[in-house]
């Protein structure tokens, strides 16, 4: 039999508060799809009766969900709390902070990106839908060519990279890509501002590479799509890091 003195204080099990239990139930309802993005939570009276809790306890539970960015509460509104299913941006900011605190360089981020996107390209080639390919081709035709000298080129090309991963169907890869998206976009814009504007020749080469990727995706050639995209990212990394190999994440995050 284990005596009380044998259990260290740090190992003591804390019983969850009632508000945490209520928040957990509501959270599970969002995860299971019983509450969808844009839905309003039932009014306070209904929730208090359903969970048999007081108003302060219920409001504490809602604050927990609000801190997790699962609900949006408009103070003074009679509509109550609204479900907001978050995307990768929910972890992008704290992840960026952790990278800054760890002293990570942009080179670290670019290498990680090169480990994610080629696999996504393979998955997309092997299981992508015609609708997915059409969406990406539309981005190439309409979203990216905002002018090769445009200050939005970093953002629009970054959008294409992120969407390609999302359409691969692998949720884990999509979340990681979403985490890295803001950092890589800011780095690309940083490079342009450092006196390395994109030349017309480089822009044309970029667009040809995107076109080549789409042909491989359409052909369902996963191995070739993966190899092509890895080469694309390797070349891009070499060009964008030239002379900036030691730049820290914090230096481009502002």
TrEMBL record:
SMART domains reported for this sequence: FCD (SM00895), HTH_GNTR (SM00345)
Family annotation (Pfam families): FCD, GntR
Domain of life per record: Bacteria
Matches recorded under InterPro entries: GntR_C, TF_FadR/GntR_C, Tscrpt_reg_HTH_GntR, WH-like_DNA-bd_sf, WH_DNA-bd_sf
Record flagged with keyword Transcription: yes
HTH gntR-type domain ranges (all copies): 16-86
Molecular function terms, GO-annotated: DNA binding; DNA-binding transcription factor activity
Protein name: GntR family transcriptional regulator
Organism per entry: Mycolicibacterium moriokaense
């Amino acid at each position: 039999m284990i005596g009380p003195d044998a259990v260290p204080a740090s190992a003591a099990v804390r019983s969850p508060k009632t508000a945490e239990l209520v928040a957990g139930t509501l959270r599970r309802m969002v995860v299971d799809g019983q509450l969808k993005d844009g839905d309003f939570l039932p009014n306070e009276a209904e929730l208090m009766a359903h969970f048999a809790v007081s108003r302060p306890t219920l409001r504490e539970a809602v604050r927990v969900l609000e801190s997790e960015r699962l609900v949006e509460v408009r103070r003074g509104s009679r509509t109550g709390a609204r479900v907001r299913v978050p995307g990768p941006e929910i972890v992008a900011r704290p992840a960026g902070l952790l990278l800054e605190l760890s002293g990570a360089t942009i080179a670290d981020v670019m290498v990680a990106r090169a480990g994610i996107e080629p696999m996504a390209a393979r998955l997309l080639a092997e299981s992508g839908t015609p609708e997915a390919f059409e969406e990406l081709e539309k981005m190439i035709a309409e979203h990216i060519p905002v002018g090769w000298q445009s200050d939005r080129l970093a953002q629009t090309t970054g959008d294409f990279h992120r969407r390609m991963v999302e359409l691969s169907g692998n949720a884990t890869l999509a979340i990681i890509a979403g985490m890295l998206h803001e950092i890589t976009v800011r780095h690309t814009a940083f490079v342009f501002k450092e006196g390395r504007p994109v030349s017309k020749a480089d822009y044309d080469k970029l667009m040809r590479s995107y076109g080549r990727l789409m042909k491989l995706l359409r052909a369902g050639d996963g191995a070739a799509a993966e190899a092509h995209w890895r080469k694309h990212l390797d070349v891009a990394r070499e060009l964008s890091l030239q002379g900036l190999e030691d730049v820290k994440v914090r230096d481009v995050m502002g």
